[in-house]
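pls read this stuff:
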Amino acid sequence: MPRSEALDTIASLNFQWVDLGMLRTFNVGEGPFRALHLDALEVDADEVRQVRDRLDAAGFKLAAVNAGGGYLNVPWEREEGTAYIRRSIEICRELGGYAVTIQSGKLLRGTDWRANVDYVAPVIRELASFAAETGVELHIEGPHIEMLTHNLATTRDFFEIVDHPNLFVTMDPSHIVVADEDPLEVTRALGHLIRHVHIRDGAGASPVIVPGRGEIDWPAYVRVLQEIGYQRPVMIELCQDESEEYEASNARFLADTNFSQRFMRNVLDVVASSDALAR
């Protein structure tokens, strides 16, 4: 949807927190994907102010910016990708968000994983320091299919190599399902790093399942978030098939959003009720 229509729709569904899509088109596996409601290198200060005013008028709080303008381990994308993240950090701060989520780098099969991480590590340290100076956290989404942080082991190793105090994890458990790992155990293992959470389900090889229709045990997952002390919003993140006719795609997307919202509210109510009984 155009940004204004998207914000109107979100407001009509009574959400309070939003993430802002600032992802230029990129490939995940063989498929192109984008989520671009604001382009960091094209937007001017007036448009950023307009977005802030629109968020304020709707009573929204910005949680995070999902940013990407090029893979940091692809040499011909590295410079612009770095500039894109730097500007995204500034925009996030101007809009009142607490985190910028980026990808660790493209999983380039047939190349050395450690060499790729060593290549991106200095840039990510620099960006994490810049974010800290700006008053924003820098997050890596991990695990994430087809990225350098594609499972628990690579996510752990990536953070150990980069080793920066302002680098954290945005967790999306749908990608853990695709890695054929246990979302509960992986989330526990990375709990000390998790500062933002996307809610999406997974099944088999697909990380784009509507919450409640995949393999994740959501009440158990919420309890794990409690265990690790997570107290920030959880953000429903769904995907549209843009090859569909626009109106049909939007109708399905709205139905999926309504279902997800009702489902997650019920999950939270169930967990809260069981916690009250336990006390």
Summary: The two ends are 45 Å apart (CA to CA).
